[in-house]
Amino acid sequence: MFGTRWSSVQFTASIQTSMGTPFDMSVLEQIKQAIQPERLIQTAVRLIEIPSPTCNATEVADCLASLLTEEGFDVQRPAAGWAKAPAVVVRYRTPRPGRTLQINGHLDTVHLPFIPPRVEDGILYGSGASDMKGGLAAGIEALRVLRETDTLPAGDILLTAHDLHESPWGDGTQIDGLIDEGYVGDAVLLPEYLHDQLPIAGRGLAIIRITVTRSGNPVHEVLGGIEQPNVITTGAACISRLASLDRELLNNTHDIAGRDSVFVGQIEAGEIFNQSPTQLKLAGTRRWIPGTDARVVRQQFDDLIAELNRETEAETDGNFMFCRDAFELDPGHDFVTAFQETCKAVMGKPLPTGAKPFVDDGNTFMARAGIPAITHGPHATGAHTLQEQVPVDELVRVALVYALTAVLFCPSSDSKVFEPSE
After folding, report:
1. What does pTM read for this prediction?
2. How do residues 32-52 score in pLDDT, each as one tens digit?
């Protein structure tokens, strides 16, 4: 139907064998041959063809649950605080005790006009193709292959999929609920569209919204408007203080994650040039580096709003929407080692380490669940636009990386599969 286009996904087995490889090469080849690109893409298309803007992922979650049930997986549907669209949870267990590797993905998409799926010249297009229904389908393919080949040495794979991810429409509370209810592995992979580096640090994020209001109605400037408390003047004072705070934060830096920051990206007020408006709104972000207490960051924001209310006639209200906390990942953790050894086998070399430029559920797993989280997905483009696209070969590669990482991270007590190379 879609064609496999498998040839561009190249193994470096001969290179790694000469350098010393942690893999049983027969296992590696078995997993490689078991991946079915057409099945993977059919799964992605089924997910993409169902519109699922954040807070409205009910139908796509039901579809995924039915698909996995039909394939013989034991599917659970915990509400996790969001009964409108219960999460989808699957656990594939081996008969041998061991670690649990979790694969987590969100089913919701940003609120943009829906683009239906299509596959052309080896590229998958459509709403969520990049972020992140394509990547989730790759994770599902890895789960299937591990079950079909029985190559997971021990332990189990936990797949979780959910709603409420995309801000500002979602608040991330469904993944919070899953974590709090115990749907947590010993480590987690997240197939967001970061493909060329291993993120070992990232900043926290809050969306800030500020509303300045005055009593009464809008009025013409020359009919008393100029005597009213000026919401635009107060808004300007607010922006000035946020800019001053951003300058103060320049010295709050992290070697990898970057620096603390305050950013204003939206402002709106007034209907016409000579009218005194009754309301001004502005919105932006507050980001902070690892080691910073998010509660202190919030208090700093609240204090700024309180100061404005003491010093200006208009009323200022601030909303600090916590999204995700900052994190640091230990590059020496067994999970990181397993992932990097897999990258060496699949891509020829380990990924360079660096910062995660955005926030995702990996931040939450690190901060709330206390488990290592690696964000790694396909080389996809167009996230949060109408031009989402991802090469089929990249989804196949991700499925391969996920399955092989699981094999290395979940060894049996007598396994010789995982012996890190020099």
Report:
1. 0.91
2. 999 999 999 999 999 999 999
